[in-house]
């Protein structure tokens, strides 16, 4: 099986976030660790992801949430290769809730990623509309998964271990 890299978004993923819970249940999963989760910089975050991918023995599977999804698009746009990517809750940089500190991610690549990917989108995500996720899916060549009304698909969504997400991850590899 390909290594799994967990890539949180702005602010990192706290203890109740499904990404953190997956890491606790799967010690072989590795978090891509940014120096500062609250001061995102495109070039720095893409380099940290690139270094983590390069350190893997084979191209890994990337599990990205929120701003992490835009990091993956920049990574792929710079020639980065992964086994596949599960992209959950892609944020829209033009949305009013998008963090001011992350505006450097606004001009993200809108071209096929070059590896299999799945975008998981909610119908009531305050950080990015379902329509925005659908446009990203078309541009990136990603499969689009509609999970209904789950907000930003984070700890506040009350997903716990989010077994449906694990099924989506397994299906991406299958």
Summarize the helices and strands and which ones pair or pack:
Elements: E1 4-7, H1 18-25, E2 30-31, H2 42-55, E3 61-65, H3 67-77, E4 84-88, E5 117-121, H4 130-140, E6 143-146, H5 163-173
Detailed description of the structure:
Helix content is 32%, strand content 14%. It is an alpha/beta fold and 174 residues long. The protein has one domain: Rossmann fold, CATH 3.40.50.1820. A six-stranded parallel sheet has the order 2-1-3-4-5-6, with helices on both faces. It is globular and about 40 Å long. 40% of the residues are buried.
Can I get a quick summary?
With about 170 residues, this protein is an alpha/beta fold. Helix content is about 30%, strand content about 15%. The chain is built from five helices and six strands.
CATH domain class name: Alpha Beta
**C-alpha-based Rg, rounded:** 14 Å
Q: What is the CATH superfamily label?
A: Alpha/Beta hydrolase fold, catalytic domain
Mean pLDDT: 96
Tell me the strand percentage band. 5-15%
As residue ranges, the low-confidence spans are: none
Largest sheet: 6 strands, parallel
CATH topology, which one?
A: Rossmann fold
Second rung of CATH, namely the architecture: 3-Layer(aba) Sandwich
Q: Strand order of the main beta sheet, please?
A: 2-1-3-4-5-6
- The CA-CA distance between the termini, in Å, is 11 Å
Derived from helix and strand composition plus strand pairing, the structural class reads alpha/beta
Helix content: 25-40%
Q: How many helical elements?
A: 5
SSE topology string = EHEHEHEEHEH
- Shape descriptor reads globular
């Amino acid at each position: 099986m390909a290594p799994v890299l967990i890539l949180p978004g702005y602010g990192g993923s706290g203890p109740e976030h499904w990404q953190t819970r997956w890491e606790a249940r799967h010690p072989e999963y590795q978090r891509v660790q940014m120096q500062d989760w609250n001061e995102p910089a495109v070039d720095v975050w893409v380099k940290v992801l690139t270094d983590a991918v390069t350190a893997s023995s084979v191209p890994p599977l990337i599990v990205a949430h929120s701003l992490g999804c835009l990091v993956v698009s920049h990574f792929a746009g710079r020639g980065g290769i992964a086994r596949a990517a599960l992209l959950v809750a892609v944020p829209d940089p033009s949305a009013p809730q998008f963090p001011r500190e992350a505006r450097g991610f606004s001009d993200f690549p809108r071209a096929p990623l070059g590896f299999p990917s799945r975008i998981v989108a909610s119908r009531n995500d305050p950080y990015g509309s379902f329509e925005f996720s659908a446009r990203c899916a078309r541009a990136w060549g990603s499969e689009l998964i509609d999970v209904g009304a789950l907000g930003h698909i984070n700890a506040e969504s009350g997903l716990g271990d989010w077994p449906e997400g694990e099924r989506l991850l397994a299906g991406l590899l299958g």
